[in-house]
Design brief:
Blueprint: H1 4-15, E1 24-27, E2 32-35, E3 39-40, H2 47-52, E4 57-58, H3 63-70, H4 88-91, H5 93-96, H6 113-131, H7 133-142, H8 160-167, H9 186-192, H10 194-218, H11 220-245, H12 307-311, H13 313-317, H14 319-326, H15 338-345, H16 362-368, H17 381-391, H18 400-410, E5 419-425, E6 431-437, E7 440-448, H19 457-464, E8 477-481, E9 487-489, H20 490-498, E10 512-517
Parallel strand pairs: 7-10
Antiparallel strand pairs: 1-2, 3-4, 5-6, 6-7, 8-9, 8-10
Helix pairs in contact: 6-10, 7-10
Length: 521
């Protein structure tokens, strides 16, 4: 096929004979091809034709010229000086080199497969970029009434917002207090329109990603062959290095440890794979582990960040793409905030006591999105022991300085002073007892829990056995956390609510719990 011309080139030069210049004539004096009008020898980007040194590059000037010379009604000249763009049907002709007229003088040529793909992909991406806003903008407006009820501190998670804050030196120092915050802050405003912000973030990310794709496809015609060559050379070099280093190479594999597991003390500062919720230094693993770090049911480890991104070889090679993957917008954890959360669902953090949601509504539960969190840490015995010791004050990592700092941040002490009971008069004339625990509220239902309460199965088994997952003890009262439907004895639950801790099983906070009797014997 066309690659045979390279052989013919060297053979012809060796024999001193003339070369078939295709769309030109060979000049013995200069020992080169002189091309006809509108033809030229290929540039370095068309590597094979460049090595052949023959007149294979047609220089189109207009769409009309391409259509007239090639007799193809839809042929175009996307870039002057290039071959005509004729679509895939003509690109695969002549072994993927592109169809060309049989006349040597005055003919024309279509782009081959590689160039056709570049132009076709560029046109597709350009059209998507021109019309994508028609999808994202209306969807963002539709989502305006939907906010989120903050149940996870996201100030240390990868996002555009946190990256921008870090870029301008305004990185948040929040240590979990934002979850129960009832004051008007930037976070509370964004929470009330969280789904609109999410759609806009997704739109910005999409435009940045497609712009990166556009840059790639614009130059794929010139780099595809060289990338293939470099991949072969790199694979050969890596294989040689691994063979030379032998077992010594394994010592540099910092990602063999589980850096998202707080019990794995091998996860240090040199780990290129890191978890945004894990402490940077295991020695500093303190009470923050139970609020903004520690174990998570299904939290991915990221290759990125600031210093962590610089240490990872993958990110150094493809840093723009790695950064985009790193800051991919995370979906809000629920739709219990905003207009609907306050006026319709009764799930907003500021919802009055008499309108609090008390469970049992399938539509509201759907918008609570607990169905997205199917895993928990019920089987993680090491994590259970850490939680138990922390709540009972027996943990060596529950240092006093960290607790005092958190108390100051939350504006209260962990004492019985923020625990009181009130009676609420319902519309039917009956009374219901509400227990205020810190900034959370426990609704006494004066009955036992059953399957209709939608409890998590593993947690419901603990309840039936009257054996709390945390303290492994029995109790006459149990609390059902409405944000996640996990059950704990009222003693452990009260301490966690006083401290504004998230659920230790799924790491989701709850500002409202239902308090019921222990299971009947």
């Amino acid at each position: 096929m066309r690659s045979d011309w390279l052989v013919l080139l060297f053979v012809s030069c060796a024999e001193g004979s003339e070369i078939d210049c295709k769309h030109g004539v060979y000049n013995n004096a200069t020992q080169s091809c002189q091309c006809f009008d509108h033809w030229a020898t290929a540039g370095i980007t068309d590597t094979v034709d460049f090595l052949e040194g023959v007149c294979e590059q047609y220089r189109c000037q207009s769409d009309q010229e391409c259509q007239r010379i090639l007799n193809i009604g839809y042929a175009t000249c996307p870039i002057k000086g290039w071959n005509c763009y004729c679509g895939w049907e003509w690109a695969v002709k002549f072994g993927g080199h592109g169809w060309e007229t049989p006349r040597k003088d005055g003919g024309g040529e279509c782009m081959g497969v590689m160039y056709t793909f570049s132009v076709w992909a560029t046109l597709c991406v350009s059209n998507i970029l021109a019309t994508a806003w028609m999808f994202f903008l209306p969807l963002a407006v539709i989502c305006l009434p939907f906010g989120k009820k903050r149940s996870i501190c996201d100030h240390r998670r990868p996002s555009f917002w946190n990256w921008a804050r870090q870029l301008f030196g305004c990185q948040s120092e929040c240590r979990g207090a934002c979850v129960m915050n009832t004051s008007c802050t930037l976070d509370s405003i964004l929470d009330n329109m969280a789904w609109t912000v999410y759609v806009l973030d997704l739109g910005i990310w999409f435009y940045m990603f497609m712009s990166l794709v556009l840059i790639i496809v614009l130059f794929i015609w010139s780099i595809a062959l060289w990338i293939a060559i470099f991949i072969v050379l790199a694979a050969t070099a890596i294989a040689g290095m691994c063979a030379a280093m032998g077992d010594a190479g394994s010592s540099g594999d910092c990602c063999t440890i589980d850096c998202c597991n707080p019990g794995d003390t091998g996860a240090g500062l040199d780990c290129c794979c890191f978890c945004p919720h894990s402490p940077a230094d295991p020695i500093a693993f303190n009470s923050d582990a139970f609020y903004i770090s520690g174990a998570y049911p299904s939290e991915p480890c990221y290759c990125g960040g600031s210093s962590e991104m610089d240490r990872c070889s993958f990110c150094c090679c493809l840093q723009p793409l790695a950064w985009l993957i790193f800051v991919f917008p995370a979906m809000p954890e629920n739709a219990w905030g905003g207009f609907f959360g306050y006026f319709c669902f009764g799930t907003h953090i500021l919802t009055p006591t008499e309108r609090l949601y008390q469970g049992g509504n399938y539509l509201i539960e759907f918008f609570g999105m607990s169905w997205r969190r199917r895993n928990d840490l019920h089987s993680n015995e090491a994590w259970r022991a850490l939680v138990r010791d922390f709540l009972l004050g027996e943990s060596p990592i529950a240092d006093e300085n960290s607790l005092l700092a958190r108390q100051h941040t939350l504006g209260r002490r962990f004492s019985g002073g923020n625990y009181h009971e009130v009676e609420q008069h319902l519309s039917d004339g009956s009374e219901q007892e509400i227990v205020t625990i810190g900034r959370a509220r426990a609704i006494k239902i004066n009955r036992s829990f059953d399957e209709s309460d939608g409890c998590v199965p593993s947690s419901f088994e603990d309840y039936l056995d009257n054996k709390c997952w945390i303290c492994m003890s029995s109790n006459v009262e149990w609390d059902l956390w409405l944000s996640c439907h996990h059950l704990f004895c009222s003693a452990c639950s009260t301490v966690m609510l006083q401290r504004s801790m998230p659920c230790p099983l799924c790491r989701v906070s709850s500002s409202v719990v239902k308090r019921g009797h222990a299971a009947l014997e």
